[in-house]
From TrEMBL:
Keywords: Flavoprotein, Oxidoreductase. InterPro entries: FAD/NAD-bd_sf (IPR036188), FAD/NAD-binding_dom (IPR023753), Ferredoxin-NADP_redctase_2 (IPR050097). Transmembrane segments: none annotated. It catalyses: [thioredoxin]-dithiol + NADP(+) = [thioredoxin]-disulfide + NADPH + H(+). It comes from the Bacteria. PANTHER family: THIOREDOXIN REDUCTASE 1-RELATED-RELATED. It comes from Collinsella acetigenes. Residues 7-297 form the FAD/NAD(P)-binding domain. This is FAD-dependent oxidoreductase.
Length: 311
């Protein structure tokens, strides 16, 4: 453990947390960032990021690592551990439980991000990690020369289908609606890719097999017709990209949440609890991207600095 007391505790080492930590340290706050996994958050899972302004051709891993490293270079201490619990003390400061250790912080920027939503078909949990995946960059290589089904019709699903089309022999996209919900440029690329087939109005009903899946049952949502497709064990995979749910359980009692689970903040990232700021994908916002996450983080840390200057 690096320190038992700090001015600013930043929980989460994705783009929002990294940016908040950088701004906190540069404002002179003794800042600690808590991240149990690989630095960079969700973006580290993706192949090429081509929409971050000024960096047209950077991998997600490079971008996520660079954001995190920039914070460390600015003097931020890191704790590579999950924050298990957060409590507000009577004096208004906070106590973080990290395993059997405790850390006190005068202010918090919470940047817990979001996690992949399940598609909800029978067998999804059983075969997660054994035929069902939520990350093409992480697991795509297991399907070199094989068949993959991609569930989803949004931008992330299209991006990942294009990535998988360069590895797999064939990609079948299953889109619940009758059209994509993705920018036209990406849809055009999907349509121009010879080994991607698209089936609209279709979802996965179930996946079955023994150690590995062998049978996928598809459902046409218009006719309710079920179609069974059988494959050899290990010859195909199912990638789910149906959206993300904000991660906010850690701060549930200290914030208000919207219907989609996102934390409600003011424009300065403050919550209903003084000294607790939330940033990035975990909060209610119209666009969950790296560019908005880093912006949120910078605002949150600046607001934390202003808050600490007044108390
Ligand atoms: C496959 C994929 C492709 C994407 N492509 C793009 C793209 O091309 N362009 C783009 O702009 N955006 C893209 N995004 C979205 C982008 O990655 C997110 O908007 C961004 O990462 C959000 O940053 P964040 O810091 O809010 O959250 P996250 O990146 O989710 O980071 C949150 C971090 O908090 C940590 N954490 C959670 N709970 C705790 C806890 N209790 N204690 C300590 N740490 C905790 C997690 O380990 C995680 O590292 C993509 C996302 C995915 C999944």
């Amino acid at each position: 453990m690096v320190s038992t007391e700090c001015d600013l505790a930043v929980i989460g080492g994705g783009p929002a947390g990294s940016s908040a930590a950088l701004y906190g340290a540069r404002a002179g706050l003794k800042t600690v960032i808590f991240e149990p996994g690989l630095p960079g958050g969700q973006i580290a899972q993706t192949d090429i990021v081509d929409n971050y302004p000024g960096l047209p051709d950077i991998s997600g891993f490079e971008l996520g690592s660079a954001l995190y490293q920039h914070a460390l270079d600015a003097g931020v201490d890191q704790v590579q551990h999950f924050v298990d619990a957060l409590h507000r003390k009577p004096d208004g400061s906070f106590l973080l439980n990290i395993g059997s250790d405790e850390v006190s912080a005068r202010a918090i920027v919470c940047a817990l991000g979001a996690k992949a939503r399940k598609a909800g078909f029978t067998g999804e949990d059983t075969f997660t990690g054994r035929g069902v995946s939520y990350c093409a960059t992480c697991d795509g290589m297991f399907y070199r020369g094989k068949l993959v089904y991609v569930i989803g019709g949004g931008k992330a699903a299209c991006d990942e289908a294009l990535f998988l089309s360069r590895i797999a022999s064939r990609v079948i996209m299953l889109v619940r609606r009758d059209q994509f919900r993705a920018p036209k440029g990406i849809v055009n690329k999907i349509q121009a890719t010879a080994n991607i087939d698209v089936r609209f109005n279709t979802l996965v009903d179930s996946l079955a097999g023994d150690a590995l899946p062998t049978t996928i049952v598809l459902k046409n949502v218009l006719t309710q017709q079920l179609t069974e497709e059988r494959h050899n064990p290990g010859s195909f995979g199912v990638f789910v990209f149906t959206g993300f749910d904000p991660v906010a359980g850690l701060v549930n009692e200290y914030v208000d949440r919207a219907d989609d689970g996102g934390v409600i903040t003011k424009e300065d990232m403050s919550t209903k609890t003084p000294g607790l700021f939330c940033a990035g994908d975990m909060r209610v916002k119209p666009l969950r991207q790296v560019v908005t996450a880093v912006s949120d983080g910078a605002i949150a840390a600046t607001s934390a600095y202003n808050y600490l200057a007044l108390i």
